[in-house]
Amino acid sequence: MSRSAHPAGPRHADVLTEGHYSAPAADLNVLDEKVWSRTVTRDADGALTVGGITVARLAEEFGTPAYFLDERDFRARCRAWADAFGPDADVFYAGKAFLSRAVVRWLKEEGLNLDVCSGGELTTALDAGMPAERIAFHGNNKTVAEIERAVEAGVGRIVLDSFQEIVRVAHVARRHGVRQRVQIRVTVGVEAHTHEFIATAHEDQKFGIALADGQAAEAVRRALALDGLELIGVHSHIGSQIFDMAGFEVSARRVVQLLAEIRDEHGVELPEIDLGGGLGIAYTSEDDPREPHEIAKALSDIVTRECEAAKLRTPRISVEPGRAIVGPTAFTLYEVGTIKPLEGLRTYVSVDGGMSDNIRTALYDAEYSVALVSRTSDAEPMLVRVVGKHCESGDIVVKDAFLPADLAPGDLIAVPATGAYCRSMASNYNHALRPPVVAVRDGEARVIVRRETEEDLLRLDVG
Ligand SMILES: *Cc1c(COP(=O)(O)O)cnc(C)c1O
User: How far apart are CA 424 and CA 426, in angstroms?
Assistant: First the structure.
């Protein structure tokens, strides 16, 4: 993954008009369905409900902060991706976005495959019953022990990320008397950010093997020469939170070009290409993500066209959405603790979590939205910054947003679109207890990852 912070475009709250921030365009009580999961709505009393359960009940039963994951929405998104790509393509869910045994079972039931990038993710996937042949193993520095486990388990593919790894995987496979199916991850010289992409000659990053100066072609030569490896294709992943398909277009074109070069040099047509993940979701109302069927059509049109031009058989395509599946399906529920109005600036609203449950704002300048969810309010909008309880001034959850001016300690607020890279990147900073993930469906809520306890913290502390 490539995750440099993208230059933020102008956001509604950044617009200064004569010393005042412009008011929000929309009624704060209205939940924008783009950023909330499918079954979220407000009940007659104005409280947010998900899967038919109000946040008041959820907070009482599970506490705050907590992530609530809309299982129907998750499954529907899996199906939408699988249906959009059809039987001639493969959808791999990127497990690093959020992985748990329940999620693995849902993926398996909905017909998706799974990307893992560590021994821990592999263990979780196998333990929850994902067939090994539906697992792809990624990473720029897999240990030999991890490679051993992946080969022993019989994973469907290992994505080779370096020259050393070509040899390591071949060696392990030979020792196990198998031919391991592999792809080679290439860096195509495209860096995609939210609304733009940059095509460069060289990629200054740790992932993959550069197409430029023939490195990728050399990797292919070496992989084809080793009998422990069955080279099935080429892999490219160009970034994250991408809306603009032009980056994928350049990437697909360059990957197909490589396939044509491989055919010309070796007389083999590799049967697969993987175009990676990184497809954007709506974190705020200003984001306009594409539907899976539009993405599938755009990608398959590009690949078909490029292959026709190069006189290649169209390879089987795979994609690896992580956030586009799980991101929109969950929100984080917080209780408001303290409120500090700073005259002429903004109001700081402190919640009972923070950078330990959502590091993305601090790490990537990520944009989020927020809503008062325990009730509605007719009060004027006030400009807020939602911050956590950690010992860092950069401990910001939502940088600029509007909440009603009558917001009070004890109110519940929720940050939508926190299904991806929030629990999976959560930390114990300040010995915070990582929040639970609660799956909600049809009036029932069940913990799928429990809240950490202080005993959990002390159990690791063996001094
Ligand atoms: C991170 C990653 C993904 C998923 O990215 P999303 O932005 O969650 O879709 C897919 N493939 C690879 C190789 C990745 O590193």
Answer: 6
